[in-house]
Specification:
By secondary structure, the protein is mainly beta. It has helices at about 35-40, 45-50, 205-210, and strands at about 1-10, 20-30, 50-65, 75, 85, 90-95, 95, 110-120, 125-140, 140-145, 155-160, 160-175, 180-200.
């Protein structure tokens, strides 16, 4: 029996103090069925099956791929110089806010699980693995365009989610295994499906999409 667990805490100064830390657990369990007594008591299994293992794992990771200081307001001259006169008539350049900050930004999170089977047959002359997995990413860090009335062209949001699931199978055969000649063949096949499960749009956005169509 196999067991593994861990907890990871990542902090990033790209986010505001309230959302700076992300916590990402992971764990895995495994059962080597071929080591069980009931398995060894079956003569056919004991003779032909060298390894049979079931496993399950789960884990979460985070993404902080945004520019530094995105969550804070920055000041500069902007796209054009803005000048005015001080009390004595001298020209002074004004400073303006150059970005629309979003202090509620937080870690983008990806969680995934995997169920697998490992097997070996005939003194490991034939071996393979079968994996079924699903991965979901939520709170995507996306730069979203803004209307001109906002005064800024875009800003970052946490919105939307993605699903990625599939099946993978691999097989390895040791056809010839002698002291003078070895010949092995291996292959794999996989089926994967990606899906946008949530666009993260507000009701007003759906109305705009409808008008465009």
């Amino acid at each position: 029996y196999l067991l593994k667990a861990s907890m990871r805490a990542d902090g990033s100064s790209k986010f505001s103090p309230d959302n700076r830390w992300g916590f990402f657990p992971s764990g895995a369990i495994g059962w080597r069925v071929s080591d069980e007594s009931f398995f060894k008591n079956v003569s056919w299994l004991k003779k032909n099956v060298d390894n049979l293992k079931l496993r399950f794992s789960y884990g979460a990771t985070g993404n902080q791929s945004i520019d530094p200081y995105t969550t804070f307001s920055m000041y500069g001259q902007g796209s054009g110089e803005i000048s005015y006169a001080d009390g004595t008539g001298n020209k002074t350049t004004a400073m303006v806010v150059t970005n629309l900050s979003n202090s509620s930004l937080k870690w983008e999170k990806t969680s995934s699980w995997n169920v697998g089977l490992d097997f070996g047959l005939f003194n490991s002359r034939l071996s393979g693995t079968l994996d079924i997995y699903q991965k979901k990413t939520t709170d995507l860090l996306i730069s979203r365009n803004l209307p001109g009335s906002a005064g800024f062209s875009s800003t970052y949001y946490n919105q939307g989610s993605l699903n990625n699931k599939g099946v993978e199978f691999s097989l390895n055969a040791q056809i010839i295994d002698s002291s003078s000649w070895k010949w092995s063949v291996s292959g794999n096949i996989g089926v994967n499906r990606n899906e946008i499960s949530d666009l993260g749009l507000l009701p007003a956005d759906f109305g705009c999409l409808g008008e465009r169509v």
